[in-house]
Write a structure and sequence with these properties.
The structure is a single chain. The chain is α/β, with parallel strands linked by helices. It has a domain of 183 residues: 3-Layer(aba) Sandwich (Rossmann fold), CATH 3.40.50. 28% of the residues lie in helices and 17% in strands. It contains 13 helices and 16 strands. The strands form two sheets. A ten-stranded mixed beta sheet has the order 14-13-12-11-7-10-9-8-15-16. Helix 6 runs antiparallel to helix 12 and helix 9 packs antiparallel against helix 12. It is globular, with a radius of gyration of 22 Å.
Length: 449
């Protein structure tokens, strides 16, 4: 921590109660958003610069200044530091926010540590770009949306498919009624591509000298460091296999719903489901299951009737009868309308086909009504300069993330989830209700909204 008087971190973070759950006790400060010249160069920081954050950094560095980098793994951060030798380097994002005056912050850490830096940055008036999934828990998604509203900063989730021309054309087709009224959506993925359905390892290993395990754990409860074993299911926590572990990741659903369910959710203007149910194989208290199917029930909204979304992972696929004779790709989605099907064989939906009577048919794209994007990073950066929100801003991304993560409550409890979004409550299960949030390790409590 900075030694100069009362630091920004002291002022921002205050003295949150240790072990607090759901709402933290740190104040969210209203910060004015400064006007910018369209040609201004923004001062940006990147938290998690050694993983996905490296490509995020490289994209932002084309037109703006990277002045601060942060990563708990010196080895993984090596390339970013070499490419940005003038940028200050930190192991702890709290120190970065305490000492640096930034226009924007990119957060590309594991899921469990997204909300902390994002909320603190917004409280300081910084614009934020947060990798997918937006949050680790349902409650964090709601907090991020509320903080974005209160601070007025420019926000974006890093699900890049939203910015592709084909994605926006597909959305226009659905909204224009090209396939009629949609009743069912099917989305599938080849995830998990890491071990799931396993228990906690019993072995303990020495922490590498270049790796800050304590900071990597961040808000998660302390556990011993363990590296992977070639002769067993456990492949280590970092830098990749954390996605399986409930304490750190959100499983196959959290990793890929932000992509394959994005177009259906956006095009149909879905919001909160009223119920969710699942069937899983290879479950574990520690990790997501080996395979799962999940159903989300979305109520009618406006002129749209109710929609059921079907999720498949671990090798499961939609019924072959939906697209007879077609071998489905490893990831994609299908929207069932009463006048046809919209099928995309890709995660993002940038390419798609319209099917009627069991075959692909030509169609005329409707008039363009959605703006086209310069790309996921540039849409955020230009939005900061122009004071315009990207399409993947938190007003959209947070409810989307919240809805998808409800599927993990069904997986973890084995129960049908009845959801009251207005009250942020599972109405039929106290066990599931406790899982909408989590406990934060002392020193990593969330900024209060």
């Amino acid at each position: 921590m900075s030694s100069r008087g009362t630091s920004r971190r002291d002022f921002l973070l205050g003295s949150a109660a240790a072990g607090s759950t759901l709402l933290g006790s740190r104040p969210l400060l209203a910060a004015p958003i400064r006007s910018r010249s369209p040609n201004a160069r923004l001062r940006l920081g990147v938290v998690g610069c050694g993983g996905k954050g490296l490509s995020d950094m490289q994209a932002c560095a084309k037109t703006h200044d990277i002045v601060a980098l942060c990563d708990v793994d010196h080895g993984k951060a090596k390339q970013a530091r070499e490419e940005q030798p003038k940028a200050a380097f930190y192991e702890d994002w709290r120190d970065l926010l305490d000492r640096e005056k930034l226009d924007g912050l990119v957060v590309s850490t594991p899921d469990h540590s997204h909300a902390g830096p994002a909320l603190a940055a917004m409280a300081l008036g910084m614009h934020v770009f947060v990798q997918k999934p937006l949050s680790h828990t349902v409650h964090e998604a709601r907090l991020l949306r509320d903080a974005a509203r209160k601070s007025g900063v420019i926000t974006s989730m890093g699900n890049q498919g939203t910015c592709l021309d084909g994605f926006r054309t597909a959305a226009e087709c659905v909204r224009a009624g090209v396939i009629g009224k949609v009743t069912d959506v099917h989305v599938w993925t080849d995830r998990p591509i890491w071990p799931q359905g396993i228990g906690r390892p019993k072995h303990i290993d020495a922490i590498p000298a270049t790796f800050r395990w304590d900071l990597w754990l961040g808000p998660a409860a302390w556990r011993p460091y363990a590296s992977g074993r070639k002769d067993g299911d456990f492949k280590g926590y970092a830098p990749f296999h954390w996605r399986a572990w409930w304490d750190f990741g959100t499983g196959a659903l959290g990793d890929m719903a932000c992509h394959v369910a994005n177009l259906p959710f956006f095009a149909l203007e879905l919001d909160a489901p009223s119920w969710v149910e699942s069937v899983a194989e290879g479950s574990s208290d520690e990790t997501a299951p080996k395979r799962a199917t999940i159903r989300f029930g979305f109520p009618a909204r406006g002129n749209r009737g109710p929609v059921t979304m079907h999720w498949y992972d671990g090798g499961d696929l939609p019924p072959a009868s939906l697209l007879p004779g077609i071998k489905l790709r490893s990831g994609g989605f299908l929207l069932q309308g009463d006048q046809g099907l919209l099928y995309s064989p890709t995660d993002y939906g940038e390419t798609f086909e319209i099917w009627r009577d069991g075959k692909s048919v030509p169609f005329e794209a409707p008039a363009q009504v959605l703006p086209r994007s310069p790309g996921v990073h540039d849409e955020w950066l230009q939005g900061i300069l122009n004071k315009t929100q990207p399409m993947a801003n938190f007003e959209y991304a947070a409810p989307f993330t919240e809805a998808m993560l409800l599927g993990n409550l069904a997986l973890r409890t084995g129960q049908r989830i009845e959801w009251d979004a207005a009250a942020l409550r599972v109405t039929n299960s106290e066990v599931a209700q406790r899982l909408i949030g989590k406990t934060y390790r002392r020193g990593f409590e969330l900024t209060k909204v």
